[in-house]
Design a protein that fits this description.
Length: 241
């Protein structure tokens, strides 16, 4: 099991990790998301589905404050995002791990340096000793690749490295944007297994995907709920998936 730093987390609370009330986001006068009402409980596991262009990535970007809602209320980790100072936003982001669709590595740095980068940026390098870091790398199966550059890894290895980087600060919330979209089924299952393990450790997980097979596989192993974006709204899908 992965060993990560404890972080500056609050005591376990019953408040939603995410809470949206009549929230929406518009761009160039066009609604991308509208009238979203949603509570995401601590320790829950959600899939976010919808056709390409429906707003899945926009929803995730709202969740880690890369975008701000243009109307309504959004609370992240019990903080209303409206009016937050830059340092407040930085503190919230430290409790959110994001796995981007394109991984977003610095290509001239080794994987060791890339995965540790969140610790360096936040000034917390001393909080994860080498033993803990090696445990994390072994957990994602990349112990033999830490000196490699990102371009020297396969798609599956890059995604596992992206997951390690996302959880190195022991976040409360993990957001993954199509993390298995470019992988074969065997590797997709490995990524899913890691995400399920994180959820069983108490982490809240939201995965944007269009892969129904992935969703069905997860639902046989964990209490996963499915959110579907349709008509610019996020709705809880039925149990027939």
């Amino acid at each position: 099991m992965v060993k990560v730093i404890e972080g500056d987390q609050d005591k376990i609370r019953s408040e939603p990790v995410l809470q949206l009330q009549e929230a929406g986001f518009s761009y160039s006068g066009r609604d991308i998301l509208a009238n979203v009402n949603l509570d995401v409980a601590p320790g829950s596991f959600h899939f976010l589905t919808g056709p390409s262009g429906s707003g899945k990535t926009t929803f995730l970007r709202l969740c880690y404050q890369a975008l701000m809602p243009t109307r309504g209320t959004l609370r992240i980790l019990d903080r209303d995002v409206r009016g937050l100072e830059r340092e407040d936003i930085a503190q919230i982001r430290r409790r959110i791990g994001v796995v981007h669709q394109d991984c977003k590595f610095v290509d001239h740095l080794s994987m060791y340096e890339n995965i540790r980068m969140p610790l360096q940026v936040s000034g917390r390098m001393a909080e994860l000793d080498d033993s803990g870091f090696q445990d994390l790398i072994a957990w994602v199966g990349l112990s033999a690749h830490m000196d490699a550059l990102p371009t020297e890894l396969s798609s599956g290895e890059r995604q596992r490295a992206a997951l390690a980087r996302a959880v190195v600060m022991s976040p409360d919330l993990i957001l993954a944007d199509e993390p298995t979209g470019n992988l074969d089924w065997k590797m997709a299952q490995k990524i899913l297994t890691l995400l399920i393990e994180l959820n069983k450790m108490g982490k809240t997980v939201i995965i944007a995907t269009h892969d129904l097979q992935l969703i069905r596989t997860a639902k046989s192993q964990v209490n996963a709920r499915v959110l579907r974006i349709a008509n610019n709204q996020v709705q809880l899908a039925g149990a027939d998936l």
